[in-house]
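Incident log, entry 3
Record: Peptide O-xylosyltransferase (287 residues)
Problem: checksum mismatch between cached and fresh output.
Input:
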Amino acid sequence: MKFAYLILCHKNPSQLADLIDTLQDGSNYFFVHVDNKVDIVPFVKKKYFIPDRVFFCNERVKVSWGGFSQIEATMSLIKLLVKTGIKVDYVHLLSGQDFPLKNNSVIKDFFERHNGLNFINYFPMPYQNWSGNGGMDRLTYKWLIDESGYERACFLVEAQKQRGMTRVYPSGFDPYGGSQWWSLTDDCVRFIEQNCVSGAPLYDFYRNTYIPDEMFFQTVLVNSFFKKSLCNNNLRYIDWEKGPEYPRVLRFDDFPLLVSSLCLYARKFDDTIDMEVRTALKNKILI
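Fresh output:
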């Protein structure tokens, strides 16, 4: 079983190198998008390269939190995978601050046993745990985060609310939300590559939404023939409860929960805050 890992990163190049090193078993491929706001040089040093296994996006996007640029960066990775002509069984979307909780053998065994299922977290909107009318404000108003910046975009949305200006959701589709990260079959990802283009109703509409990376792919897939293959579990350990960051930056005191988790991957980690937890996980995985 072969995997392609699509990795979005913007900091801590040594974590990227360690992530790739830990997940590489000679059959996996890695496609890396480095945020265009940062210097790519530290990320592409020779020690990070594995010939014909690690590819860096030339079409880099300047990513804004909450903006459609998050989707564009992911699509840049998907397009690069397709362009190489490499065929795999599963494609996993990670960030450079992710890390596996299981070794490659366990991960591959899981996907062999569940081959054909697509793993993505999703729920219908409105969603009670999201602010802004259950998250519907993300869709109802026109957000210009990439063009205007977050604060200016919020100001413009408030003006829209005062004037009663709302957007019409594309007919024939139901909106969904969920976690940004997923593990999808090669066929599913190629469906995304073919259908998520300028001119497609959902793609054009979500260009001006708020935090579309938590809605777009869910909406595309649940409204497609892939719906029957979706498993509502993205296999990621993410702590949205304890803080002080949301999601929490995982630390060594999270180690017992991480090693007992049934999840395959976890996020997020930051070596500038706590390096010990990743070191302990790697030692555990390599046993």
